[in-house]
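Chain A, query sequence.
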Amino acid sequence: MSAISRLILYYIICVISVFISEYRLAADTQSLSTLSHDMTVYLADSIMLLAPLWVLKRKGYAYGAIAAITVAIVTYANILYYRYWQSFIPVDAIFSANSYNSFVFDSIRHLVRPADIITFISGIIPLASYILLKVKDAGHVSRKFRATAITLSVAAFVTATLLSALSINKYNLSNGDDTSTISKVVRDKFSGEIPRWKNNGCIIYTINSFFCKWLFNKHLRNKSSITPDAGEIELIESFVSMASTYHHKPDSVFAHNRHKNLILIIVESLNSSVIGARYGNKSITPTIDSLLDNEGTIAALNVIPQINFGGSADGQMIYNTGLLPISNSVAANLYGDNVFHSLAGSSRFAEKAEIICENGTVWNHRTTSISYGYDHLYEKKDFEQYGITDSQGEDAALFDMAIKIIGHMRQPFMLELTTISMHFPFNDANATAASDIPDRTIDDRYLRMTNYFDRQLGIFIDRLKADGIYDNSVIVIASDHHFSMAEVTDDMNDRSVSPIAFIALNTGHTERIVRTVGQADVYPTILEITGIGDTEIWHGVGMSILDPANRSAVDRNGDLHGTSGDSIDERKRRAWQASDLIIRSNYFQKR
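Chain A, predicted structure.
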């Protein structure tokens, strides 16, 4: 085989390998019924990605193998991320150390599938062919051949992009979007609000992602450059001025809570479906089951999660500020130092603190703790000086630390606790899990850790009662987000959303809400229950869960769950835009 023939064969192998990696990501993250329409895009994308091979000298021929390996790594990282979060990795999160902790790395082995070997092979074969075919010794192709190869590569890429844009535009018009044009679709492909893999492939997705990253960095350098126009300001202010909506309950119902402590327990990955579930003849959550039956308990177990790329950080932001996540990245990382109206910012509390079981750099927590109005942040490194160890598990240590801190806090206080033992893959090594629940599958381990958390919660509440704190406190238990069953069912096209829980104890009012509500509705509900809302101008973008008109929620994909009527449902859709504008413009800094 001639040197030129070896080079051409090597190029074809690299193109096929890149195509396989791109196809694998697409096949794992979208419906097969729509995948066939994008295969031409992925093939043309692979051809264009390998085009630089024809203008490089002999030592540069290694580019083909390097490109194939890089694409294989990036696509596989996104496959793993998608299996957990049902979304791709935001560019800023990839390069941010705040996005990673031990749980992230521990989760990887539980997300791997046997078929993933295909992605590894697609990255290895180009390197092997580079060596075996002795590509580095291949001669240069003629200038005419190079020009032809580059021209055909660009032509294939441009043609596939235009055909894709034509198809998308046709789809948009058929769905009533009269503003859609081919040029607009092409522009959105390269610099749209949300980077997409579908219909685009690696090159456009990367360009779009870095465009958004550059745009966000520009905004971070000069937040005042994001100035809402008159219509957007009107939208924001309509949400800010909703205070009267929340006073549908008589003041006397919650008047006695105005001087109580607020203990907010944000529970990792708590699906409401596991509450009351049984394994054999035993309840998984006996403590919560009992609390639901108590006088003064308000509970909603059909809360639709509304987190986005930020996962737990988004859940914490929703509860603390009443805002929904931004559309295309992690608000805690990019806008953690914004000015927020928040629960902890209320003047009602003499002291505010939060406790976490990890390093404060994760999800930029040290910054957001200050922005959310807390006086103190106690993180994992602080536990030792209080004599707290995790020998009984992370959640046990968290509640032990809380009892220590409460003993020194001025009342009325606000204390936020963020649990972690139920973090995927549910294997807190020191947690004393129930021996009668087997440890065979991820689903089993989830039940074991849920039962462990429930028992530690019971111990914590008993200690609050013994210390005389319980009766003078409103205790809120809320899931940070749901546990996606996709990694259990291995169905990556399953976009179903599992409802999460909101439970408020010792409120003076007893109610079990079965209506569909949203995670953003928790903030105004806490304001109402504690009486904080009487003096606050900001009530979040949600509605009180106690409002009988509240019967729906809009998730991050724009899907409506339940219905509250056209006007309310439309407002719930617009809440996402309002939140995005408030956060990205740092609106409250100027008000």
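Residues 143-174 form the longest helix (32 residues). The CA atoms of residues 211 and 367 lie 25 Å apart.
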